[in-house]
Amino acid sequence: MKRIVTLLLVWISLTVSAQVKFEAEVSKATVPVNERFRVEFTMNVDGDNFEAPDFEESGFSVFSGPSQSIREIWNNGKGMFHKTYTFFLIAEKKGTFTIKPAAIEFNNRIYRSNPVKITVTPAVDPSNDPSTATVARNSTMYLVTEVSNSNPYVNEPITVVQKLYFSYNTDINDARDIQKPRFNDFWSQEIETDNFEPEQTVYKGKRCLSVVLKKAVLYPQKSGSLEIDPYILEVDCRVPTGRITIFGEIITMDDSRRLTSSGKTIVIKALPETNKPEKFSGAVGDFSFSVVPSKTTLKFGESLDLTLKVSGEGNLKLFQIPRLELPENWEVYDPEHVENVTTPLSGMTGSIADRYTVVPQAKGTYVLKDL
């Protein structure tokens, strides 16, 4: 009799073990970079010691979680049990990655979930992605990179503005940079933005509010196709839930959203070779040149200052003023470089100058050559 009982207990134990299900599921198997998606680990038993996989090792970061839920359903005296651990993850980089199994303990045995493959595609502008159209309509929040000119010449200034558009019923509480756009092969100057007051505007045919987050002036340093990376921003906001109180007041909730602007491709034209000055050093803009001596008559052995000044609008900080060609019997000291340049959104303006101290070593009348 003892042997029969023992065999029965073993059979029951094996039957229970065979019925344990521990599965992993994701909300979508293909996601863009910086997109959120959901992964759920569900078991049909009350397992303990849940151990999540290392998501960072798999190429993802945890946006929130884990949250735990338990559901029991009874039907005609039969019960169904579901225990779920839920995470929201963010895809960090392109490629195909595998979320490794999670683990639980039940009846002194370890059970592991199935691995799940995720394909991460390049980042997209949510406002242009049909697969996120429903989310975009509900969120009514867009991060947009606006470029003044997508086909400039080398060293011709362009402006880049990062702007957030959002609906009237959305309150922005805070915003944090996750990834600033990189301007490789551009000289860049960020313009200070200290007024974040929303302005009324129209975007995609709808009236909304907008705020300028960042402004920069760029000078491309070489010809060809140059990329401006997407800007990634995390926004804390308060949005309507679509429900109202018994008094007719709109119920709102706190939310946090990660927004990604689309990257931009700028096609840079090379400067024309026709009529290129012989001593051209890269000056692009509208300039005037002058050579101003501190005095035009001096005694033998006296020194004077010669100031070569360039004034106007253009890439003033990005080229060298040509050197003066002076008589060989003049003693010339290294010039002092003086800049008086500001960079508004339209580009550099002001003046740069090289101030030489020279001492003629012979008497006579001298004429300075043209530059």
Could you provide a short overview of the structure?
The chain is mainly β and 371 residues long.
Q: What is the averaged pLDDT score?
A: 81
> What share of residues are in beta strands?
over 45%
Biggest β-sheet description: 5 strands, antiparallel
Number of domains: 3
> Number of helical segments?
2
Question: Rounded to an integer, what's the Rg over CA atoms?
Answer: 34 Å
**Share of helix, binned:** under 10%
Q: So what's the overall shape?
A: elongated
The computed structural class is: mainly beta
| Low-confidence blocks of residues | 1-17, 129-139
N-C termini distance = 114 Å
* Secondary structure tally: strands: 25
SSE order: HEEEEEEEEEEHEEEEEEEEEEEEEEE
Q: Say what oligomer this is.
A: single chain
